[in-house]
Design goal:
Elements: H1 13-33, E1 42-46, H2 52-60, E2 65-68, H3 71-80, E3 87-90, H4 99-105, E4 108-112, H5 115-124, E5 132-137, H6 154-161, E6 167-173, H7 182-200, E7 208-210, H8 217-222, E8 227-230, H9 232-235
């Protein structure tokens, strides 16, 4: 169970509003610098480890899409906030024994990297909800800790996923190694964009690149991100929780 701490013990509403406004300003400024249409980049608020009360306040301030790393935590929050029109994105590593929960609760999955998991998600997706929007996570760095499919293996996985009736393949996601220089930040994002450009020749329905976080969202927007995933710069640092 997610530990529900008092809201005012975590952050003040004015702080949350200020953070959301600043992140939105950065995204819109990055769109202008890159010559992209206003509103072409969506903000996914990464709410992992944050209580439902904070998500409810963020919704009051205009956010509707939230990213979670843990299936059980996401399901508990979705149940607690069922009165709100929220869009749930699963962005963490996918455990095979959690696919049914993810397929039931999620509107999007960003971290698909195995055909076995894709098949389970397709089979377990409730038919009344329609196909689950999914992104393939691509490994654009040499870090052993990072999950994802190697770029050269993506076309084969794409071909297999497009045959699964319970899934709607929408694009690609990556989490590159941290970098501080803008040119270094842009390299992996450019690689992902170029890969999707190649895939889109045969699959024009691919329309989503999920890339960029608090520290590098400007570089991601410059290289074509459609969704940026921001947690720390909205909600602040994580706090310890009791989970089971």
């Amino acid at each position: 169970m997610v530990d529900q701490l008092p809201y005012d013990a975590i952050m003040m509403p004015t702080e949350l509003e200020r953070n959301i406004s600043e992140v939105d300003r950065r995204i819109r400024a990055a769109e202008r610098v890159a010559g992209r249409s206003a509103g072409s980049v969506s903000l996914l608020a990464v709410s992992k480890t944050k209580p439902s009360e904070v998500i409810r306040q963020a919704h009051r301030l205009g956010l509707a899409a939230f990213g979670e790393n843990y299936a059980q935590e996401m399901a508990e929050k979705a149940a607690a906030l069922a009165d709100l029109p929220l869009c749930w994105h699963f962005i963490g590593p996918i455990q095979s024994n959690k696919t049914a929960l993810i397929a039931e609760v999620s509107d999007w999955v960003h971290s698909l990297d195995r055909l076995k998991v894709a098949r389970r998600l397709s089979e377990q997706r409730p038919t009344e909800k329609g196909p689950l929007n999914v992104l393939i996570q691509v490994k654009t760095s040499d870090e052993d800790s990072k999950s994802g499919v190697l770029p050269e293996a993506v076309p084969e996985l794409v071909a297999a996923i497009t045959e699964l009736p319970g899934l709607a393949l929408r694009g690609l996601m990556t989490i590159p190694a941290p970098a501080t220089h803008p040119a270094q930040q842009r390299g992996p994002f450019r690689q992902l964009r170029e890969l999707m450009d190649q895939l889109s020749v045969a699959l024009p329905q691919l329309d989503t690149l999920s890339m960029g976080m608090s520290a590098d969202l400007e570089a991601a927007v410059a290289e074509g991100a459609h969704i940026v995933r921001v947690g720390t710069d909205i909600f602040g640092a994580r706090y310890n929780q009791v989970r089971s």
